[in-house]
Amino acid sequence: MGKRNSQRKNAAIMLDSDDEGSVSSSSSARTDKMSVTGNEEVHVDQDTLLEQALDALDEKRGSTREKALSVIIETFNSSVQHQFVEKKFATLLHSCLASIKKGSKKASAKEIALASHAIGLLAITVGCGDNAREIFEESVNTLDEYLTSKSDATKIPPFLECLAIITFVGGNDEEETQRSMDILWRVIHPKLGSNVIAAKPSAPLITAVVSAWSFLLSTLNELKLNSKFWQNSISYLSSLLDKEDRSVRIAAGEALALIFDIGSTEKFSAASKSTDDTTQEESKVQESYIHLQGLKGKVKNQVENLSVEAGGKGSAKKDLNTQRNLFRDILDFFEYGASPEISMKIGGDSLQTSSWSQMIQLNYLKHFLGGGFIKHMQENEFLHDVFNFTPKRRYLGGDEPRMSSGEKRMFKSPNSVQNKARTQLLNKQRLLSEGRNLGHYAANAGDE
Q1: Which one, of 308, 350, 307, lies nearest residue 330 by Cα?
Q2: CA distances from 60 to 88, 113, 213 (A)
Q3: Are 184 and 216 in contact (CB under 8 A)?
Q4: CA-based end-to-end distance of the chain
Q5: What is the 3-state secondary structure (H, E, C) of 183-200?
Q6: Is the pLDDT of residue 100 over 50?
Q7: How far is CA 329 from each of CA 120, 144, 293, 338, 371, rounded to the nearest angstrom?
């Protein structure tokens, strides 16, 4: 007990020396040393640094907790902290949840944002498995309650990202994914009583909600676009394409492309039926199909206009080019069924995507991880599994390729991304097993 109190005191002294802290995604942060009083510097390893920061989360002073969370985020970005989370993930999770539950009375907006971001990083670090399930189950109700209360709109976006990430990693089925999507949707479409008037959501809030919602949508198998919900969703997203804010239009465009990519329609055909034989239910299906085609036609016209938009006064050229390129890709998709292809270098390896789902997942995780994205793509097996990406160095030195936690999850999860890869993984494991019997390992066996 005395040793822990001493560690906590030292952590408080070290962390109080600098009251500035923010949600940081820079992997260049000096996480191997911390400033203490005066100009003196103390060099410590990352485990010790994380232990000190974890102890400091119990301190009463808010600025100390903020600094501790900043250190944790910087350290988790600079390297994948598997060993630390194996020992301390539950302590870190509940300390972060404690910051969130304190709410506006004791925790600042900055502390709540940092704690939310730290939980998301924790989920990505532990990958799939029992720990990810615990993060999801322990956090989702707290996040739902806070988002429902909407006590401070400035605190909401970090919660949206956190909810999306923990569901993506720890959610086991489509029902859980859809529940989180409903929570997100209610932020901009709240269920109101007769005497309640909803505040108009800001453009950044709409963008954050739609982006997080699309990120989770990318994991679903199939959408029945004839349903009233999806047609209402398409209608709402179509209305966002007319908004002035470019980030809103881009987020809505990606969501619409994804919906039409994974959605299916049951086209009504009465070629072999007379009008008298057409049932009332079949008539409804026909009407729904016609309405959906009208919506799609409207969206296509909007997309075409945005793909050639000239831009307005003071419009940032980079943002305008991003919009034009995206909506040209969406137009190609509507006209030819072509999906966008992305190729990027991760160290000396090439990461490639060839679907709307993969593109949205890549962009969202890249944004969330910021400067830590490259490091995690090189070392984080969960991300390797998400993007079917294998750094060459993973098999150097004769190490046997093993089934990762993410691969194991593919055998128990009904999520679409995992389902599509399940057969390939079974074949890969079978071929690797055959290779072992022959006394060698084929690093690329079964990869298509």
Answers
A1: 307
A2: 21, 18, 36
A3: yes
A4: 55
A5: HHHHHHCCCCCCCCCCCC
A6: yes
A7: 30, 35, 20, 8, 27
Q: Which range among 31-35, 92-96, 171-175, 221-225 has the greatest average pLDDT? A: 92-96
Q: How far apart are CA 112 and CA 155, in angstroms?
A: 7
Q: Which residue has the higher pLDDT, 436 or 107?
A: 107
Lookup: tokens for 211: 């982006």
For residue 126 the two structure tokens come to 């532990």
* Contacts with 243 (C-beta within 8 Å, 6 or more apart), sequence order: 203, 206, 249, 252
- The residues that bridge with 349 in the sheet, in sequence order, are 346
Q: Using alpha carbons only, give the angle 360, 365, 366 rounded to the nearest 5 degrees.
A: 100
Question: Which has the minimum average pLDDT: 114-123, 174-183, 341-350, 373-382?
Answer: 341-350
Where is average pLDDT lowest: 23-27, 74-78, 165-169, 186-190? Answer: 23-27
Closest CA to 21 of 147, 111, 125, 133: 111
Compute the half-sphere exposure of residue 199: CA atoms within 13 Å on the CB side of its CA: 11
Task: Report the pLDDT averaged over residues 38-58.
Answer: 74
Local structure of residue 191 (DSSP, 8 states): -
Question: Residue for token digits 């991003």?
Answer: 322
Do the beta carbons of residue 100 and residue 112 sit within 8 Å? yes
Per DSSP, the chain holds a count of helices (H) and strands (E) of 18, 6
- Percent of the chain whose predicted confidence (pLDDT) is above 70: 69
CB 189 within 8 A of CB 238: no
Q: Residue 343: in which H helix or E strand, if any?
A: strand 342-346
Q: Which of 174, 179, 165 is nearest to 215 (CA)?
A: 165
Question: 336's torsion region: left (phi>0), alpha (psi -120 to 50) or beta?
Answer: alpha
Contact 32, 43 (CB under 8 A): yes
Structure tokens at 105: 């009375």
- DSSP-derived pairing of the beta strands 223-224 and 41-43: unpaired
Which residue matches tokens 């630390």? 84
Closest by CA position to 215, among listed 305, 131, 79, 120: 120
CA distance linking residue 333 with residue 409, whole number of Å? 31
Q: What is the structure's pLDDT at 192?
A: 53
Confidence of residue 138 (pLDDT cuts 50, 70, 90): very high
Residue 400 has pLDDT above 50, yes or no: no
pLDDT at 263 over 50: yes
